[in-house]
Specification:
The chain contains eight helices and 17 strands. By secondary structure, the protein is of the alpha+beta class. The strands form four sheets. Strands 6, 7, 8, 9 and 10 form a five-stranded antiparallel beta sheet that branches. α1 packs across α4, α1 packs across α6 and α2 runs antiparallel to α7. The chain is elongated, with a radius of gyration of 31 Å. The two termini are about 35 Å apart.
């Protein structure tokens, strides 16, 4: 063991990185799509087999160093350094020398791939070596290391099978077609039916605009009053604003009044009073931002200025959908941002809508992600979570 330590680890990892940079300069980036199924399953099997074969030489000087702390620290340091470079370098196509080394596409650079692969081999060989002298008291070690190994392996070889698409679905219709990277129509083994689209919005703001330019006043640093029934008074561009009435879902009741009607075409409206404290000039009336179903309404202050209502910002938007797969599976859900639907190996995310139409959007867009290796990653994280839980519990016991 005295012959192998940190010096050899640094030399080995540096050599791996140099080999990766040379491959990057000669053959270009690593093509992960070469690992698409069933190749990635064979690659995962071969990686597992290589780790298992180390059982026959587990007590050799090399394997003890290969699975020991010095090389592990060097490998992890290299991964951290490459990840740091990735974070500091724009991941886009350029023609400078760092880009030729793969810094602009780090996850597909040969240096990153080789260090990542050797880390998986080292970690797997360590697990095999420790399992050969299995001890129940080391269960936390097994949970953490096996979980991490599964995550690294599944995330690495599984990335070749991951597919992402944006699908646009009209309300009341079913869609299964998307455009691929080449702008060609592609039929998917999954279909989405949009039953309804709904949106919740925040109360809008009021501001004074110049009728000639449309610019909010004062120019350069405009004032806004956030409508809030709990704080019905504010100031914009020298005018004292009093909120007399606010209807979040309003429709026009006459040429100059509104009433509350909770329907898709409804829009926020407010009856306000504006007072100029210097002159005592007073204006009172309704203000509405309008939408595709209703005209806007402003409160004219002078020949040059009016008080207007801004477009209400979305609070959340929900799509009521049914999802079908070729296998006959069907799921119904109301999905929104950060609340996707998982069905088989597919995950459906809320992506967007018609921003100009707002609540009246006639379609909803979804991001469809196909990731058959995702469940393996979840299993790995679950093992890690259990291992960390017991690690914390054992630490508290030792303290007491």
């Amino acid at each position: 063991m005295q012959r192998f330590g940190f010096r050899e680890g640094i030399i080995t990892v540096s050599g791996i990185c140099m080999a990766g940079f040379l491959l990057q300069l000669t053959v270009g980036s690593f093509d992960f799509y070469l690992l698409a199924a069933p190749v990635n399953y064979m690659a995962a099997g071969m990686t597992l087999l290589l780790c298992l074969l180390t059982v026959f030489v587990r007590n050799s000087l090399f394997i003890r160093w290969f699975t020991g702390v010095p090389l592990t620290v060097c490998l992890l340091s290299a991964l951290v350094l490459l990840t740091l470079i990735m974070g500091l370098t724009p991941q886009q196509e350029t023609s400078n020398f760092p880009a030729k080394l793969g810094f602009n596409a780090m996850t597909t650079s040969w240096a990153f791939v080789l260090v990542y692969f050797v880390t998986i081999l080292s970690l797997g060989s360590l697990i095999v070596r420790r399992l050969c002298s299995f001890k129940w008291r080391d269960y936390v070690f097994y949970l953490n290391h096996i979980g991490l190994w599964i995550v690294l392996l599944a995330a690495g070889v599984g990335s070749a099978d991951m597919e992402r698409y944006i699908m646009y679905v009209q309300e009341g219709e079913t869609e299964w077609r998307v455009y691929d990277a080449g702008e060609n129509v592609k039929e998917l083994p999954i279909a989405v039916q949009l039953n309804d689209f709904d949106m919740e919005t925040y109360p809008p703001q009021l501001t004074v605009i110049d009728l000639q330019t449309g610019a909010p006043q004062p120019e350069g640093k405009p004032d806004y009053y956030q409508i809030d029934v709990k704080q019905p008074e504010g100031t914009i561009d020298g005018w004292e604003i009093s909120l007399l009435e606010y209807i979040h879902n309003a429709i026009r009741n006459s040429d100059s009044t509104y009433r509350e009607v909770p329907m898709p075409g409804a829009t926020p409206a407010a009856r306000i009073k504006a007072v100029n404290p210097k002159t005592g000039e007073t204006h009172e009336g309704w203000v509405c931002g309008g939408n595709q179903a209703q005209l806007f309404m402003t409160l004219k202050m002078s020949d040059n200025q009016s008080i207007v209502m801004t477009v209400a910002e979305p609070k959340k938007f929900i799509s009521d959908i049914d999802v079908y797969t070729e296998s006959g599976e069907k799921k119904h859900a109301g999905i929104e941002v950060n609340k996707p639907l998982k069905i088989g190996d597919w995950t459906v995310y809320q992506y967007g809508y018609d921003n100009t139409a707002g609540r009246l959007s006639s379609y909803s867009s979804f991001e469809l992600v196909y990731d058959p290796w995702c469940n393996y990653v979840y299993i790995g994280f679950a093992l890690l979570a259990v291992g960390m839980f017991f690690l914390i519990i054992n630490g508290k016991r030792n303290e007491s």
